[in-house]
Write the structure tokens for this entry.
Amino acid sequence: MFLNKRQIKKLTSWSVFLFDTLYPIQCLGCKTGTNYLCNKCSNSIPTNNNSRCPICHKNSPWGKLCQECKPNNSLDGVFSAYNYKHPLIKQLITTLKYNFIRSVDKDIGLLIDKSISEYSKYFSQDEIPKIFRKEIDVTIIPVPLHKFRERWRGFNQSNEIAKNIKYWPKAKLEFNTLKRIKYTKQQAKLNKNKRTKNTKNAFQVQGDQKNKTIILVDDVASSKSTLNECARILKNKGAKSVWSIVFAHQAE
Ligand SMILES: [Zn+2]
Ligand SMILES: [Zn+2]
């Protein structure tokens, strides 16, 4: 049985109300305060050290695709903000994704901004990829869910994260540029070859993307084939550069 949009909204707000009453907001780490993450616990989470090519895992600053992988892939790089194995990162994702608690997206947005700023400190201005220098106009696009899955959850967790990334103050946010048109099996359950097949032609781009510098936002990237497929079709429509920012990196 499928519920309509209004019924789902009602149900979601009821479950949020119920959840907040049963489990009042407190820090996921130290169980004190009135926020999901207190400053002390937030500062205890190590930021990105994942300076590797996302395809072959060779050392590569910022997660830029290395020269060998670049010609066979459309993505320009994947910046992974945190390691999924950290218990607080895992809990933040679970809270957002499976407990349907949207307000945790603000903490996730702040953490992503912090990870990029901290990582920048290791580089001189011209060593920082253009996209992270705030000099160019960027467009932020969340990786879309299929409408069935979004309807089931009531929201797309990547949309919520994308809204809260403030590192690029003038970034344009676009929620309707990319559409998932194929209902795909969950990537985590498939091997690498099947993942690539599974994502092929799973997305559609609306409108011209000429000369755009695009940042795809995803909560967890366990497979690069989804991001690569999105980058491929965005570049087919003229996008100049497509990077991705992933909140939690999961080793493959
Ligand atoms: Zn705490
Ligand atoms: Zn590589």
Remarks:
- The two ends are 36 Å apart (CA to CA).
- The chain has one domain: 47-249.
- The domain at 47-249 is CATH 3.40.50 (Rossmann fold).
- The beta strands are 77-83, 138-142, 172-173, 178-180, 203-205, 213-221, 241-249.
